[in-house]
Every structure is written in structure tokens, then in C-alpha cells.
């Protein structure tokens, strides 16, 4: 882009044509992070992308330059490393086959969550979003760039801890801001010393917003959790995150600011919930603050401080405000889709619920319930018997097999159409998937029944005929519309593969192999034993050849020819050293420096220096003649 050739990709300052930025010292030849967008990629014909500053399970965070507003911005790219890859030589993203549905769901969650954060752009204690758009088969969120440092670095630079007065001034505005977020049903779930930032004016802001999907373990994406700040429920895939999840993270971060250390991991605190404080530190913190931290850092959610309003009141040591909160605790705010309503109740309400549950347990089961259970058990036994009978007499029940197939189509419509709608061209369509009406499902089922009525009863009643095949032709005939049989790429040369309109091949890793030739594919995901959505990506691991390479014989070759021969075996020719030789003509290669010889085995990409002849040494020749 004309006029921006000298922008530093690390700080967006003018390099004045120098190899290193005069402002930040960043070498302009420094390569970009693996899989990140190339330097100077332009998005929306507006944003020029620079260095990828951070990478986490959800994606990349770049520094960029807004060529319309002429200012530096921060761009968040949705790039879940576990289920997608960057297409070689392109800015597009390819979803690894088998993850199309998950990718679309997570992408929609990313966009929805970033849109919710954008609503707080006027909140001074939040690094809000100012622009959201889709490109390269993924989505991006743009925020103002702040010349800020993390709270962790600020505390370290401040001697390892902060006084209560200093911490109080930093944390109270952020606590109020997060409370306002929860009033709108939005949480953060990743509050830590690394997601709170100190601005140049000395204030603190909350940033690094990630979708809730990466703030809890057990999903398709790796969790992005800070040990010591993540609440115990965030390590349970079935738990719901709520306001007191963030209360725990905020309290742990405040604990760090006051002491210089984080609490123990919440999983370890289940057996030992104590918060250990040195006596000197304990004396410097007001008693009411210690109590507030202890309440907010309870491992059990039912015993933890339920809201930020309550947490702020306890930190402020305002008995009147605390009492008022207790009286109005039952007032509810806008619910969050990730919120656990039980955690918003007071301790008294929770205790009352528990007592009611215990009372219900003690009540005897009514007689009519027992009769119903017996009837259900009998019905199940009869159903099992009928199924067993039918499985033993499938050969004579062709019509029933057809009916069963049609019924199966009603219960589980053909997935090919839905899968095909998830793709556009070579990538994935990231718009929301439309719901299928019941009439469409029934129509699809009846059409399926008519098409299958010509098949033999035995093939319809055989599950193996629908799930596997002994040859490629029978498998192809059973592949649903919009899907293809996964090709077997293992052993093929990755760099010689021809392009296919049916699938994409994405190189995600390289490994050394003594048995697989360099450039050939070692493994692939998904494997060739099943089917995949047409147009999806196949992730491959490519061989780098043997880890040890043998030095070739280069004696008598020209320097250029020797360099090519060394490079061809995976070693690096790194300059030359001149040396006289009575047997090798001037300008030709004698061998290798540093005592290396042809046949020596060296690690891949090891640098070697070549010895080049300057011809016979006349002095030595005369001495020999004498």
C-alpha cells in the first residue's frame, strides 16, 4: 500500500527506512508468528495488519493501522487453532474436516460476544470493541490501541505489591464496570493480572475478552484459564458460569495486587481452602478487606460472594450499604445465557432451597408413581423382545425394512444438505444455520423412502451396508449428498498434490521420519476410513526426512555447484574459507572446514563452511622441489 512502506510492524511508527525501528528497536526482518496473517495484510480495505502480539486458543490479537482514521488499533481474529488452519499462501482459513459444525457455532458465539462487548464502548474502565466484520472465512473485532502495560508487570515494577489505598483506586472503577456488564447479562470469566491493563494516565481497564467457550475446560477448544484466578467450576465442563465466577477472578487478582502472589489453584484449594498471608502483609491490609477477600475466594459457589455489588460493599466497609444489599438481594437483573441463577440468591435463600429439597427427599413416593414405573419397565421388555425377533427374521420383512428406513429418515434427516449449506466455495459459510421445518423433514423422509423402495430388503435391514463398504464403489454409493469419501493422502508428496474442488489440503505440522521420504505425507486428519463434508479441509503432517543428513562429496566442484549439492540434502552452506591446494585447481571446492568430511552425519539444517582452493602454494612447491 503506497505511503505505508516504512510503518514498523511492531509499533506502527515511521521507521524512516531503517532496518530496526528507531522507536521500539523491532527488526523489520523479524518473521510473523506461525499461522498469523502476513505483515501488511489489508482488511476491509482499511486496516493494515502488523505483528501478532498475542495468541491463545481462540485466535490472534494484532496491532494494526487504521488507514481511514490514521491511528493505531488492535484487531482480534477468530482462529481456533485446534479446529482450523491457514491455507498456505493465502489469508483464508480452512476448517479441518469433521469440525464444521463446531467452527460455525464457536464463530457465531465469537461474533455475538464481541457485539455484546461493543455496547460498553462508553464505559471508561473497559477496552471495548468499535468494529466487527467477517472476512477470510472468519471474523474480526477492532478495538482502540492502548499504550498500556498489564497489571502483572505494573505490580512487579512497583516493588512486588501495592498498598490498599493504591489498589482501591485502581480496582473500584473496574468492579463497577463489571457489575454494569452483568446488569446487561455479559460476563468476562478470565479476569487476571494479565487481562487488566494500566493506562498511561494511571487508570485501569479490563480487556482481553474471549468467548465463554474458551473460559471453561472440556470443550473442543483448549481452555484459556489463569491458574489461581479461575474458579473451581471453570474446570467442570458441565458447570454454568455466573457472576460469582468473575467475582472469584477479580478477588484473586486483587489478592495478587496486595500480596504479589496468586492464590493456589482452585482445584488444589478444594482440599485445603486456606489463604496463606505473611504476618507483615496481613497487618498492612484492613481487616474488612481481608474478610471481603476470604468471602469472595470461597471455593464453594454457594458460600462465595454472589455479586460484584456485594463484593464492592464489603471492600468499602460500609455496613449500611451492606445491610441494604441484603434486603434487596432478591431483586433480579437481566439474565445472562451463561449465568447460573442459583448463584444470585442469598445464602439464606440457598439454605431454604436445600432444606426444601431435603424435605422432598424424606417424603414417601406415591403408590401411583410405582405403578407407572412398573408399566414402563414391562413396555421396555416387550420392545426389546420385538426388536430381537425382527433382527432374527429380517430376510422376510422387506416392507418393514423400508418403513424402518423411512422412519429413520424422519428422526434423522439427511445431513448432506445441512452440511453443504455450511460451505461456500472453498471455505465455510459462517452465517447462522436456518432451522429445518418439520414439514421439510417429513417431505425429505418420504422422498427417501420412495428412493430406497427399490433396494433389496436384505441390504436395507443390514446396518453394515450403510456404514462401511469393502470397496470404494459401494462406499461412494452410500455417501450422503454434499459429502465425499475422505481420500487417502498418506505417502503422497504434499508439494505435488493437484488441486481438488472436493477438498482442501492444509499443512499443519512437519515431523522427521527415517522411513517416509521428505515432502511426503505421514498422517492426515480426518483419516481415509470415513466421509467428510465436500469442500472441507484435510489437515496433514508432512515428513521432513531423516533428522540426520549425510554430507555429500563436493571435492572438485565449483563453489556454486557444491552449495546446491549441500542444500539438496537439507544442510546449509554457510560461506567459504580459502585454502591453498596442490591437488585441487583454483576456484574449486576442497572439502569442508572444521574437520568435517564427506559422509559425516549432521542434524537437519546444520550450517557448514566450504573450503575453496586458491591453487598450489608456490613456496611450498619450491621447498618440495629442493
Automatic annotation (TrEMBL):
It is an enzyme of class 2 (transferase). The chain crosses the membrane at residues 170-191, 247-263, 368-390. Its EC number is 2.7.11.1. It catalyses: L-threonyl-[protein] + ATP = O-phospho-L-threonyl-[protein] + ADP + H(+); L-seryl-[protein] + ATP = O-phospho-L-seryl-[protein] + ADP + H(+). One of its GO terms (molecular function) is protein serine/threonine kinase activity. Residues 481-544, 545-614 form the PASTA domain. Keywords: ATP-binding, Kinase, Membrane, Nucleotide-binding, Repeat, Transferase, Transmembrane, Transmembrane helix. Residues 337-359, 453-478 are annotated as: Disordered. Pfam families: PASTA. This is non-specific serine/threonine protein kinase. It comes from Caproicibacterium lactatifermentans.
Amino acid at each position: 500500500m503506497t505511503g505505508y512502506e516504512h510503518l514498523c510492524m511492531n509499533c506502527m511508527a515511521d521507521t524512516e527506512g531503517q532496518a530496526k525501528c528507531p522507536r521500539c528497536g523491532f527488526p523489520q526482518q523479524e518473521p510473523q508468528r506461525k499461522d498469523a496473517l502476513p505483515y501488511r495484510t489489508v482488511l476491509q480495505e482499511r486496516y493494515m495488519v502488523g505483528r501478532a502480539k498475542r495468541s491463545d486458543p481462540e485466535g490472534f490479537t494484532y496491532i494494526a493501522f487504521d488507514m481511514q482514521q490514521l491511528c493505531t488499533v488492535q484487531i482480534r481474529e477468530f482462529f481456533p487453532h485446534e479446529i482450523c488452519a491457514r491455507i498456505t499462501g493465502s489469508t483464508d482459513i480452512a476448517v479441518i474436516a469433521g469440525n464444521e459444525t463446531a467452527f460455525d457455532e464457536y464463530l457465531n458465539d465469537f461474533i455475538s460476544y464481541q457485539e455484546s462487548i461493543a455496547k460498553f464502548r462508553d464505559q471508561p474502565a473497559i477496552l471495548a470493541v468499535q468494529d466487527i466484520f467477517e472476512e477470510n472465512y472468519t471474523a474480526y473485532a477492532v478495538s482502540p490501541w492502548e499504550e498500556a502495560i498489564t497489571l502483572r508487570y505494573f505490580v512487579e515494577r512497583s516493588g512486588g505489591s501495592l498498598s490498599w489505598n493504591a489498589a482501591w483506586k485502581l480496582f473500584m472503577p473496574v468492579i463497577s464496570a463489571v457489575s454494569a456488564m452483568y446488569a446487561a447479562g455479559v460476563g468476562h470469566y478470565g479476569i487476571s493480572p494479565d487481562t487488566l491493563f494500566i493506562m498511561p494516565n494511571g487508570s485501569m481497564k479490563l480487556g482481553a475478552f474471549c468467548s465463554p467457550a474458551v473460559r471453561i475446560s472440556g470443550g473442543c477448544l483448549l481452555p484459556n484459564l489463569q491458574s489461581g484466578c479461575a474458579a473451581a467450576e471453570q474446570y467442570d465442563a458441565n458447570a454454568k458460569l455466573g457472576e460469582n465466577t468473575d467475582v472469584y477472578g477479580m478477588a484473586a487478582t486483587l489478592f495478587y495486587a496486595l500480596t504479589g502472589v496468586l492464590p493456589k489453584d482452585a482445584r488444589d484449594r478444594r482440599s485445603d481452602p486456606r489463604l496463606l498471608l505473611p504476618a507483615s502483609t496481613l497487618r498492612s491490609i484492613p481487616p474488612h478487606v481481608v474478610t471481603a477477600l476470604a468471602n469472595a475466594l470461597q471455593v464453594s459457589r454457594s458460600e462465595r460472594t454472589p455479586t460484584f455489588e456485594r463484593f464492592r460493599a464489603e471492600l468499602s466497609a460500609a455496613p449500611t450499604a451492606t445491610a441494604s444489599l441484603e434486603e434487596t438481594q432478591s431483586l433480579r437483573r437481566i439474565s445472562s445465557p451463561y449465568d447460573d441463577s442459583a448463584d444470585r440468591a442469598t445464602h439464606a435463600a440457598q439454605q431454604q432451597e436445600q432444606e426444601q429439597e431435603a424435605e422432598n427427599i424424606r417424603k414417601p413416593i406415591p403408590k401411583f408413581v410405582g405403578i407407572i414405573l412398573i408399566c414402563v419397565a414391562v413396555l421396555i421388555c416387550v420392545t426389546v423382545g420385538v426388536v430381537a425377533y425382527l433382527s432374527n427374521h429380517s430376510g422376510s420383512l422387506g416392507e418393514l425394512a423400508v418403513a424402518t428406513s423411512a422412519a429413520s429418515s424422519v428422526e434423522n434427516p439427511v445431513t448432506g444438505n445441512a452440511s453443504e449449506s455450511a460451505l461456500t466455495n472453498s471455505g465455510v459459510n459462517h452465517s447462522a444455520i436456518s432451522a429445518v421445518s418439520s414439514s421439510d423433514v417429513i417431505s425429505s423422509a418420504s422422498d427417501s423412502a420412495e428412493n430406497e423402495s427399490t433396494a433389496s430388503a436384505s441390504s436395507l435391514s443390514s446396518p453394515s451396508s450403510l456404514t462401511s463398504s469393502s470397496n470404494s464403489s459401494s462406499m461412494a454409493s452410500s455417501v450422503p449428498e454434499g459429502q465425499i469419501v475422505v481420500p487417502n493422502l498418506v505417502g503422497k508428496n504434499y508439494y505435488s498434490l493437484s488441486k481438488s474442488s472436493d477438498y482442501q489440503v492444509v499443512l499443519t505440522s512437519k515431523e522427521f521420519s527415517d522411513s517416509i521420504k521428505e515432502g511426503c505425507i505421514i498422517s492426515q486428519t480426518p483419516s481415509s476410513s470415513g466421509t467428510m463434508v465436500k469442500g472441507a479441509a484435510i489437515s496433514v503432517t508432512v515428513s521432513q526426512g531423516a533428522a540426520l543428513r549425510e554430507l555429500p562429496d563436493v571435492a572438485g566442484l565449483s563453489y556454486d555447484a557444491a552449495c546446491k549439492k549441500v542444500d539438496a540434502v537439507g544442510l546449509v552452506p554457510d560461506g567459504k574459507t580459502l585454502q591453498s591446494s596442490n591437488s585441487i585447481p583454483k576456484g574449486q571446492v576442497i572439502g569442508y572446514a572444521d574437520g568435517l568430511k564427506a559422509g559425516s552425519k549432521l542434524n537437519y539444517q546444520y550450517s557448514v563452511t566450504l573450503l575453496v582452493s586458491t591453487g598450489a602454494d608456490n613456496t611450498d612447491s619450491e621447498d618440495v622441489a629442493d
